[in-house]
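In the design runs reported in the main text, the only information available to the sequence generator was the tokenized backbone. The following block is the verbatim input for one such run; it is reproduced so that readers can re-run the procedure and compare outputs position by position.
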């Protein structure tokens, strides 16, 4: 039995990072993982390229603040 790539426990499943990950990192596409680490991979958020998390209401609030700021400048 193989080891989990993330924590070192006995691997029971396999996580598929996808073609792009394998192509750009030259790492294996599929890695052995345990059930707990599989859940961690499945539930994690992808990194935001600009460091900001604009989703749903946050984006609308940001836009409303900018609009109010622009109106004050007029």
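Verbatim output:
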């Amino acid at each position: 039995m193989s080891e989990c790539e993330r924590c070192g426990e006995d691997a029971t499943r396999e996580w598929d990072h996808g073609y792009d990950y394998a192509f750009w990192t030259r790492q294996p596409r599929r890695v052995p993982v345990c059930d707990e680490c599989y859940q961690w991979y499945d539930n994690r958020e992808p990194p935001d390229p600009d460091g900001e998390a604009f989703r749903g209401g946050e984006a609308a609030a940001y836009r409303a603040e900018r609009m109010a700021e622009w109106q004050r400048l007029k």
